[in-house]
Amino acid sequence: ALWPLLRANPKLFVFACDYAPTSVKLVRAHEEYDSSRVYAFRADITREIESPLSEKQARGDLKEETRQHAPEKKTSAANDNDAGLAFREDNTIESVVGLGCVKFITAVWVLSAVEPRDVFAIAKRLFRVVTPGGMVFVRDYARGDLSELRLCGSAGARIDNDFFKCGDGTRRHFFTVTRLKDAFERAGFETREAQLIRRKITNRKEQLDMHRTWVQAKFFRRS
Questions:
Q1: Residue-level pLDDT at 48
Q2: Which of 40, 56, 107, 134 could be joined to 130 by an S-S link, Cβ 3.0–4.6 Å?
Q3: Per residue in 89-128, pLDDT tens?
């Protein structure tokens, strides 16, 4: 979603966060990456800090850090991409972005990768980061998706109800609408939309129908 959003709105500035350094490198290596419009950084969204930055502090630190890792002249992609990717223990969304600093947040296939017990805490942190009047957009795996049915048949994959360990070592949590709404509403958000989306996708080459299910939601911060 990053690049289409930037193309559609020339005044937009975007923070792009991921835990995996490879993902951050891919964003920074993209031909449309412009440090005056995008700041891609590595952080652990499950980790909190005691004293998150204020909006003013965050903006000042961001300006300085982007100035440091954005070269005056075009240098090698490797040099640009490696800058600032070492995982810092104090790197969190609050410490980089600040409080009440963003209008919109997208969490697409993100929350399913964390422990179900951490979703409420993450929702509370997103509430602090998004500005009053802002919105969080969520799309993620839902109970009954084809991938959950496949994991149910894998020995040793189930960790808990609707929570599995995948073959690549990552974890996957399958939401219900009620469970997702509960986490965000307890964090202070108002639910503007929350629904299950079901699609039948046909692999024409293999003549195989795949039934996919995901949850899609919009959460609003009033104050």
A1: 65
A2: 134
A3: 557 888 889 899 999 999 999 999 999 999 999 999 999 9
Q: Give 129-183 pLDDT, tens digit per residue.
A: 999 999 999 999 999 999 998 899 888 899 999 999 998 888 999 999 999 999 9
- Rg (alpha carbons) of the chain, rounded to whole number: 19
Q: Are 39 and 15 in contact (CB under 8 A)?
A: yes
Distance, CA of 54 to CA of 66 (rounded, Å): 18
Which value, to the nearest 10 degrees, does the dihedral of the CA atoms of residues 58, 64, 65, 69 take? 160
Burial label, 177 (beta-carbon count in 10 A; 0-12, 13-18, 19+): middle
Average pLDDT, the chain: 83
Q: Dump the DSSP string for 56-123.
A: HHHHHHHHHHHHHHS-SS---HHHHHHTT-SPPTT--HHHHH-SS-EEEEEEES-GGGS-GGGHHHHH
CA distance between the termini of the chain: 27
